[in-house]
Each structure stands twice: as C-alpha cells, then as structure tokens.
Amino acid sequence: RRVAIRAHVWCEGPDGGDVYDNRAVLMVDTRWGKIRRQEDYEDTERAAAFDLFNGRHVITEVDITEVDDV
Predict the structure, then answer these.
(1) DSSP secondary structure string, the chain?
(2) Are 8 and 25 in contact (CB under 8 A)?
(3) Distances from the Cα of 69 to the Cαs of 39, 64, 66, in angstroms?
(4) Contacts of 37 (CB under 8 A, 6+ apart)
(5) Which of 28, 34, 35, 33 is nearest to 6 (CA)?
(6) What's the predicted TM-score (pTM) here?
(7) CA–CA distance, 6 with 32 (Å, rounded to integer)
(8) Is the pLDDT of residue 66 over 70?
(9) Who wins on pLDDT, 67 or 48?
C-alpha cells in the first residue's frame, strides 16, 4: 500500500513573524502495517537556514496551544 502525507511546519519568532515556514511530502510504502520504504521531500535550504537561526538564538518559551489531539 502506498501512502502520501503532506505536512506544513512553521515556527513563529518573538515578534510574531515566521522564522521558519516549510512544507514537506512523505511518500511511504507499507506492507502488513510496517513501513517498508519512505522518501521525504522538503526545501532543505529553508531547513538549513532555520538550523543557523537556532544556533544564534535561544528559544525560552514554547506555545503548544495550537496542537490538536488526534
């Protein structure tokens, strides 16, 4: 069975603006409930820029109010 998952990941900075905004697609092949193969597609330049940002800034507070229970 083949499954495609689309994800949108972002992080707001202290001023409310986005310091990270990226979309990803995961392509998964499964058999008997186990992942047999997975391919991830994302903008790696944005991810690298966010890694640099995190190396220069310390996040002191995390707001998880937008997390939904599934």
Answers:
(1) -EEEEEEEEEEE-TTSSEEEEEEEEEEEEEETTEEEEEEEEE-HHHHHHHHHHHHH--------TTPPP-
(2) no
(3) 26, 11, 10
(4) 28, 29
(5) 28
(6) 0.59
(7) 22
(8) no
(9) 48
How far apart are the C-alpha atoms of 26 and 19, rounded to whole Å?
23
Amino acid letter at 8?
Answer: H
For the cut 60, the answer to whether the pLDDT of residue 64 exceeds it is: no
The identity of residue 64, as a single letter, is I
The pLDDT tens digits of the residues spanning 16-62 come to: 888 889 999 999 999 998 999 999 999 989 988 888 887 776 655 55
